Amino acid sequence: xxxxxxxNAKVVNEGxxxxxxxxIQGKYIKRIGTDLKVDDDIQEIxxxxxxxxxxxxxxxxxxxxxxxxxxxxxATESRAAVAGGITSFIEMPNTNPQTVTIGHLEDKFAIxxxxxxxxxxxxxxxxxxxxxxxxxxxxxxxxxxxxxxxSSTGNMLVDDEKVLREIFSKTDLLISVHxxxxxxxxxxxxxxxxxxxxxxxxxxxxxxxxxxxxYLSSSRAIQLAKETGARLHVFHLSTAKEMExxxxxxxxxxxxxxxxxxxxxxxxxxxxxxxxxxxxxxNPAVKGQQDKxxxxxxxxxxxxxxxxxxxxxxxxxxxxxxxxxxxxxxxxVQHAMVAMWEAYHQGKISIEKIVQKMSHxxxxxxxxxxxxxxxxxxxxxxxxxDPDDSWTVSKDNLLYKCGWxxxxxxxxxxxxxxxxxxxxxxxxxxxxxxxxxxxxxxxDR
Length: 445
What we know:
- It contains 13 helices and 19 strands.
- The protein is α/β, with parallel strands linked by helices.
- The chain has a single domain (55-366), classed as Alpha-Beta Barrel (TIM Barrel), CATH 3.20.20.
- The strands form three sheets. Strands 1, 2, 3, 4, 5, 14, 17, 18 and 19 form a nine-stranded mixed sheet that branches. Strands 6-7-8-9-10-11-12-13 form an eight-stranded parallel sheet.
- β17 (415-421) and β18 (424-428) form a beta hairpin.
- The longest helix has 18 residues, at 211-228.
- Keywords: Hydrolase, Metal-binding.
């Protein structure tokens, strides 16, 4: 593994931007300072006005392996993530087989250890009948527990209130939840099918997976967490109404209930359905401008703690189906960071806040060991970004196995030029390294 000295970078870390050098030795950040001198065997990289940020930690991805590998694999999507400045990911349990037993969890870790370009962990999945397996999970070695309280596949919808309370009461894992009320969605869907059949116009997606469905589910989950003392993290918020459920008057380290927003809910609105169609069909649905504005407000005032992707690729053929058969989700890991930097260029958010929400806060929230910050002794998961090197997303530069992106045709002003994974230069000016240096995440719990 080569050693590197990054010279004269604009280092973005812990609320500050400072011009300095960063020395990488082996897997770790060895020194941070100015005018660092090193031996001849250390490769120097001159930042020349670029920003150096800690690699993003994406706390919600679907890499589709095992069982759904016609859509994506850990190998393909982790490489796309590295090119996008995401150096660590936490993958979800709704694969095939589902990650609801310790054996299936370890099978996924074994795949990632052989094929992942980025650092990795996995969520263990909850069902109505696997509490005994949940209680076997070691919270020091697994990211947490994922519960689908709506919009699930297979038997992963946890809709037994007694079981849900028992899980919240007995596990000491961090519980992450998908919140949409299934009964509300089913009733809404039936109404639109009665009018349109299966070919419901996509513009009605936010009415079917409505504000009311989201709020009803998320408010119930939060109330249950308060009653039981469970540690709760609410994934992919999408509505203005839900923002009243979260607080910003205490530090993240002291919060028992935390919140995430995803790139697509911060970028798109229901006005984009006409052009993008099912390519922006997600669950929860992309909703109106008022909801998007409220998400941005909550993100900036720290009611929302984390920015993630919910990267969930499907093939173009699958997406081309009529509404009721077109799956929800889309690929995002390659473009999430530059999309947020585009928001910086638009004056919506500071660079320091982007780093807080994509790197620092996921590390704090999940208690990830020695990642998410630029600190001496921490793993060298680092990203160099040129803020003024514009490029346009096209099929020719996509790395997703599914071969498409909702951002095709979008021009981003900033470009990621270098990504380091555990001190290894894994991506440089459009080229991915063949060496795989991703490691299993560990947690300080």
